[in-house]
Design a protein that fits this description.
Cytidine Deaminase, domain 2; 7 strands
Length: 160
């Protein structure tokens, strides 16, 4: 028997001003998206913004539904919209922000498992690492590639 350990390497920051200009712009776009979320049931507003290789920024927000499983997370809304609008353009980075009652969470929100899988596939499809920026008002975490968030992904090769 072999035992393996997987680690997540991330970088933590205390303030937005410590980030690069393009990262700050992406976080601010995610904050705007979170404010526009359709979250009338949970009041948990999540926004995501993706930066594409062509320089475009595409945003998405969580979309709830009275039939809860019919809703969709902000990350997938942004990624699917980017894919529909710019089908062959890789995503270079994604910023994610969550708020409740217009107040940004102190700790960063992390993507659910389904979103991590979609992010992983989009990263693989783009053949380039996708930086993940998780923004909280008192802590910011940056992961350099989605593969670090999902060490055992379901891959297209699994379908063979």
């Amino acid at each position: 028997m072999k035992q393996r350990a997987y680690t997540v390497r991330l970088f933590e920051y205390d303030q937005l001003k410590e980030l690069k200009k393009e990262q700050v712009l992406l976080v601010n776009s995610a904050i705007k998206a979170a404010r526009d979320a359709y979250a009338i049931y949970s009041h948990y507003h999540v926004g995501a913004a993706v930066r594409l290789a062509n320089g475009e920024i595409v945003i998405g927000s969580n979309q709830e539904n009275a039939a809860y499983p019919s809703g969709l997370c902000a990350e997938r809304v942004a990624i699917f919209y980017a894919g529909a609008r710019y089908p062959n353009v890789p995503i270079l980075s994604i910023a994610i922000v969550a708020m409740h009652d217009e107040i940004i969470q102190k700790e960063p929100a992390v993507p659910c498992g389904a979103c991590r899988q979609v992010m992983y596939e989009k990263e693989s499809q783009g053949d380039a690492p996708m930086e993940v920026i998780l923004y909280g008002s008192q802590k910011i975490q940056i992961i350099k590639q989605v593969a670090d968030l999902l060490p055992l992904p379901f891959k297209k090769e699994s379908l063979s």
